[in-house]
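User: My collaborator sent over this chain with a note saying "see what the structure looks like." That's all I know about it. Can you take a look?
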Amino acid sequence: MIGPFRGGRTRAATGVPSQPNVYYVGQVNGGVWKSDDYGRTWNPIFDHEPTQSIGAIAVAPSDPNIVYVGSGEGLHRPDLSIGDGIYKSTDAGKTWSHLGLKDGYQIPALAVDPRNPNKVFAAVLGHPYGPNAERGLYRSTDGGQTWQKAIYKDENTGASDVEIDPSNPDVIYASMWEVREGPWEDGNEFNGTGGGLFKSTDGGNTWNQLKNGLPNDLSQIYVAIAASDSKRLYATVASASSTLSFYRSDDAGENWAKATDDPRPSGRIGGGDLSIPRVDPKNPDIVYCASTVTMRSTDGGKTWSGFRGAPGGDDYQNLWINPNNPDIILLVSDQGALVTVNGGQTWSSWYNQPTAQIYHVSVTPTFPYKVCGGQQESGSVCILSRGNDGEITFRDWHPVGVIEYGYVAPDPLDHDLIYGGGRSEVSKFHWSTGERQDVTPIPLRSSKYRTDRTEPLMFSPVDPHILYYASNVLFKTTNGGNSWQAISTDLTRQNPGVPQSVGRLVPKNAGKQRGVIYALAPSFKNVNLLWAGTDDGLIWQTRDGGKNWKNITPTELTPWSKVTQIAASHFDENSAYASVSRFRINDEHPYIYRTHDGGKTWEPIVTGLPEIGPVDTVREDPVRKGLLFAGTENAVWVSFDDGDHWQSLQLDLPHTSMRDLWIHDNDLIVGTHGRGFWILDDMAPLRDVSESLAAGDHLFTPAPAYRIQRDTYTDTPLPPDEPAAENPPDGAIIDYYLATSSFAPVTLEILDSHGQLVRRFSSDDKPPATEAELKQQLIPLYWLRPFHALSADAGMHRWVWDLHYPPPDSTRHDYPISAVPHDTPRYPLGPTALPGSYTARFTANGRTYNAQFTVKMDPRVKITTVDLQKKFDLEKQLASLLSETSKAVAQARSIGDPLQKLSQQATGTALDAVKKFQNKLNEIVGSPGGFFAPPSEAATLSRVNGQVATLYGGVWQVDAAPTTAQTEAATSAGRDAKQIMQHWQTFKSSDIPALNRALRNSNLPELKVAADPHLEESGMDEE
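Assistant: Without extra context I'll predict from the sequence alone. Here is the result:
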């Protein structure tokens, strides 16, 4: 996941009264998140469940470990998502179990009896686009094991809200809502009067409808109960005639009256759902309404003022007030979740929740590439696929002026320009200045052109000067939007009609609704070949650049079968793939079609896909013919045989809506509608997959690796609780497969172009530092990169060679200030491999496999081959000197303690010999000094070792030719090293034997130099 760390639409919200630091929120398609630090950080706790669409969360008041979740966002919007029932946790969100109501699809409210955690009510709204019987208010008295319908009206009317009176839990209020959506984009929500407000005074056994004072054509209603005065109720009310009002009752709902003429508290949230009221638990006159801006009244709903909001509207969806302390409020919106603990004076951030709802994916033609898309409710974003600071942070993304649900089209010829399209807007953004220009071909809306929220905007892959934009007709520009040409007539159905799924609520003029062009696929082979699909179920093709269009729609596509995407083949002009969603006509089955004859015939290719899961995207791999990828409303899928069979490629992805896929070089990118952007780094092994592969061990051909600095950040590292995303692996990604566990250690050797060994890894490798040594580190262990060894177990494995030679021996190991939580390596690392050809030699189960790959230079770095070789040669020279002098220092210091003991034991001539020996040893070894210690005048082992380490670090850390000063210093250090090493060798060969003779004569133990001492020096070098 690469971000962005900017929250998306969040509907469900609750806290734990007895634990004021703990909160749960549910993102409408991004799962359940929990905070235990007042919203400072949020963590996903629902990722392994088969849905991420969340409409309601309830914590049992009598047992905070019991948490119920209702899936399906429960919002009637054009981009809604559905769930699969109710879930429960008995350990505060660590694990979950499914409780049924799978066909309820949308559960916007839950309520748990404060006396009994097993008694729970669920408001089930049902299918948004069609009738179904599993809707209404449900009750369970056994913790969700079984459910009974408490209120059921018909297959068209569901429950939208349920509230339990905290002072008398036998009193329950429930809202019923008759609503249906049509398959077109705008004007598609139809409200009936079959719902209403209901009340039970016997725990849900019997119900009475409350009508007095409420509109006769009431359609939708949300109720809030004043905990300090349960007779005081507030309600936001919508009528079938679209009137919105704020009501109040002072007799527990028996009679109602409008509380105010101010339209703001009852205004729809961003033009969408009805606003939600909540009451201060200590003061019945203080009431809030979550709407485009959160409003507050302190006089019982008569007058109102803005409580929390911003220009443009944050679109608040819900709020929870701690019943023990009304200054603690959890507020959720289209931007994410916020917490205040001081009554709204200050708030936590929503820039710590990677729950962005992305519509489409595109990438910039840069290195590293940026991933771009429109983000629902927030605008747009382009975010780096790799950050310079060792991870992807807030510094690595920025809005690019595109409408929130639009396509983003980076200019392939001018890296400064980003185009965006959605609705009738086409924008042109300049990275260098931030200026945004409107270059739409439809500056004023008219009945001639129709648009949806998300309209195709893309460059021709054959001619990068051509930019296409679609409405109900297709436009083309070759001058950056200064002028446009319509290159099609209206490609939509003239009379698509109203599908039966809409039911009885359809208005009289609904039959006049028409569609738009929703999918576009310019050919990768022929600039004049384009494929287009509409949201009302047509597929078209032109072979002459738009002069003539041919209807090539598969016969199975009935009206309002939305063509979500078309993928033109990279390999021939006559092949294409089309994904189709019939979700908006109450059909949740997957549909993908394939043609190899230019659209004359189509065949469905869905074998292996689940029964439920509309398809939003299909893509063809540009390298391996027949390798396809598809994204559905809850998973990513792969086919190795041109779509004949599909299998899951979900891996660690949460089951959110996969709205778009894109393949850039060897990366597979997914834009999710609830969890931001995700990248499958180096999916090249998928191109090697075959039926025979699994029969034996296999080494996959590595993709080209780029020589990139791991982390160039020079300041104090970003704290680990700041939101950030993981960079792609730094180095060569080497994948291998073992059919069975290896009976002997597996090894991986990296060889250069001359066949010389660069690096060797083994499954028998041991950590360079013991656990005890790690615990003695100054810094907390959460910064450290954990040790990994090659795996010898059966299965698929990934290894990353960091493009370094073995690290030199050093008297001092540390962790750089360019640190990344859980991924900071121990320095020094070895010299960096030069760009060129390399071979991975893998040995397992007695057999050896070879695979060649290339290492490429970071294209942003401007350095000649000659200068890069100079850097490499100096790195190797200094690394060798560092190892040599470090071993000498370690050997010399290994005799320090024994020598000190001897000085205490020896007498007479032996003591004189020991002291003379100590003095000479100190002259050779010297002192490591401190940070502010002046440099030693004499060449000592410690001084030379410290100088070499400093020079090595300075040359190693940057891809630039060594400076003259560095080269001269290295030459000088080399001379000093040679001199002092000669002294050391002479000392070992002469002085140590001489001392040992004196010790023997005094019957004292001889002094021995460790052959391979292990010594860590924590001080700084003398420089």
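A starting point for your reply to your collaborator: Confidence is low (pLDDT under 50) at residues 1017-1023.
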